Amino acid sequence: MTTIRNTVSEPIPFEASDFLNLDRLLSDEERAVREDVHGFVREKIKPNIRDWWEQAVFPREIVPEMGAQGLLGMHLSGYGCAGKSAVSYGLACMELEAGDSGLRTFVSVQGSLAMSAIHKFGSEEQKKEWLPRMARGEAIGCFGLTEPEAGSDPASMKTFARHDGSDWILSGRKRWIGMGTIAEVAVVWAQTDDGIRGFLVPTDTPGFSAKDIVHKVSMRASVQSELHLEDCRLPSDAMLPEAKGLRGPFACLGEARYGIIWGAMGAARDCYECALEYSKNRIQFGKPIASFQLTQQKLVNMMLEINKGTMVALHIGRMKDEGQARPEHISFGKLNNVREAIEIAREARTILGGNGVTLEYPVIRHANNLESVRTYEGTDEVHTLVLGQAITGIPAFR
Q1: Of 136, 171, 206, which one is at a domain's C-terminal end?
Q2: Which residue out of 184, 273, 377, 381 is catalytically annotated?
Q3: Residues 197 and 308 both lie in one domain
Q4: What digits encode the pLDDT tens for the residues 28-47?
Q5: For residue 353, what are the domain limits?
Q6: What is the pLDDT of residues 183-202, one digit of tens each?
Q7: Among 369, 58, 48, which residue's Cα sits nearest to residue 183?
Q8: H helix runs in 282-326, sequence order
Q9: Contact between residue 97 and residue 268 where contact means Cβ atoms under 8 Å apart
Q10: What is the CATH number of the domain that holds 213?
Q11: Number of domains forming the structure of the chain
């Protein structure tokens, strides 16, 4: 007679944020990266972010600490970069954005845009000159693609670089450029007689100037700028030799968009955890509001979307590490996760009632920040049309 053994293990306790126990899908190294960044955010960012955001201050002093954590260009290899996997980088972005979108944006601009452009398309001399210092946080970079009249359509940019002997003369304007006023080097994309090319422009170059975009009610602990280039003379070796056409900037934007897929879920998780804790302690009609059916429905919907969005991020990250992720996959993640994160932030605000519009809680700050995240690195409309073309085979941009 065969004995049937009961192989059912003890049930795993449900975690409020990781309901599906996605943590078990991570390697020990990936968990270690996440915990390190989580601790960094808890100690360095969360105690200060309310004041930084309210006062519109980007804490430049934290940049070398980010470098020491290996956060700057962490998915790049060599030249002082950490060489971590796409999943590890994504987990870092999630934890950073749970602190604030602006701080994750800095890491994204520095590593996924400016450093990535140099790493992918620069000469060996350019890589050696800039990447080690940028990885340590000793030099800050920015990425000049968007213009006042060329946002979703970068091919229509008016910034132009012309030859003058062996030099380049660069003129034009860029807008909504992260870190523009505090950068030591700007990666600037410009039209030339030979198509769109990228240039490394030290920000002390005569003719280069930058000014902050002020009066923002979003991303206040971050720097967004307008760049002005008036006959900036650059040597011939200022051009990124391996980038020609929009393939160059688009490859860098793909790296930044990937980080957003994870980061948006970090902001959403922070809103959800705040609302969950608040609902357990807020007493109305003689009992916690967490006991009411409508509140539980809101919390459950948040939990569902955070777990689904994190699964999307992890799956795309695994695909990226295997070399299988296409730009359309990145568009899928960016469109879905940012859209859902905004809805979670708004719903969390309703649970907090009037208290939800104060900076005593992180929810309204995340909600405002995510409005910017929704727009930059491709609007909902652009990513929708990317996906529409992918499934129909018909382009709808023009």
Answers
A1: 136
A2: 377
A3: no
A4: 999 999 999 999 999 999 99
A5: 247-392
A6: 999 999 999 999 999 999 99
A7: 58
A8: 293-321
A9: no
A10: 2.40.110.10
A11: 3
